[in-house]
Amino acid sequence: MKFVIQRVKKASVSIGGETAGSISKGFLVLIGIGHEDTREDADILVKKMTGLRIFEDENGKTNLSLADVGGALLLISQFTLYANCRRGNRPSFTDAAPPAIAEELYEYIISECRSRTADVQKGVFGAEMQVELCNDGPFTVILDSNELKNKKPGSQE
Asked: Which intervals of the chain form a coiled coil (predicted)?
């Protein structure tokens, strides 16, 4: 599972010209779900993401979390994060989870985020969406559940 987390001043997602979700200060999160991903992977990434201290404190240090700044989440499903571009010029998406599995995990992630964050907005799974954002920094972090699960002994979290 992959989360591309962008610290934003504002972000929105529209479908067919209608706004489906919008936030001010917070994270726009693109969520890629692979065919081997589980709820355990989702739990690891949600916990890590909501605890990230990437907002600036009064001294300009990235030391504050989403909760510390009263930030919101905009969660967007994006299977293209599993694009395989090793061969040719047309990406393959065979590493992405089938839609039924991916949608169930996407909804689970939304539910878990709502239990940790007051303002959680979302896109529509499988829809053609237009995403707008004002990246703050820019500041972008990529979380991959395989990397987080396979930490070496003695490494820092």
From this structure: none
